Q: What sequence folds into this?
């Protein structure tokens, strides 16, 4: 598992992650500012943040315990939330779209590229789930001031 996380993080840092897997944006704004703006952008859409996973803190806290000396992130969080309106729309189109809910947006400052904050989300399949992708893209762009 550690290797998969490391490989994914390294690929992300190198810009080698295929476009069909995720959408990312970078900014030189501080992690704290972007995190605050991201939460406000989610709330501004009338949504509620269900959970914030402090992935960077967890990985650093457990790094030695799992036998690693790799410092991945200066900071990294994942915001999870849902939209009753959009979720109902996509799940009425296909009830199995439940697999995508809740929706997540990550924010990370890599240890090897301090001062650069990456914000993104996984891409969704063509069809009804593009409404979710459109919503996530709007949220991320608002958070980074685009």
A:
């Amino acid at each position: 598992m550690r290797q998969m996380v490391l490989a994914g993080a390294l690929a992300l840092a190198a810009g080698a992650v295929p476009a069909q897997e995720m959408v990312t944006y970078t900014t030189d704004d501080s992690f704290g500012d972007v995190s605050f703006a991201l939460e406000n952008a989610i709330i501004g859409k009338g949504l509620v943040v269900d959970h914030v996973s402090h992935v960077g803190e967890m990985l650093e806290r457990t790094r030695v315990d799992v036998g690693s000396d790799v410092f991945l992130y200066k900071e990294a969080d994942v915001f999870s939330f849902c939209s009753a309106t959009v979720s109902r729309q996509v799940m009425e189109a296909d009830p199995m779209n439940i697999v995508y809910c809740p929706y997540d947006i990550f924010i990370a400052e890599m240890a090897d590229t301090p001062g650069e904050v990456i914000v993104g989300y996984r891409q969704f399949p063509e069809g009804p789930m593009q409404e979710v992708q459109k919503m996530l893209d709007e949220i991320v762009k608002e958070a980074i001031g685009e």
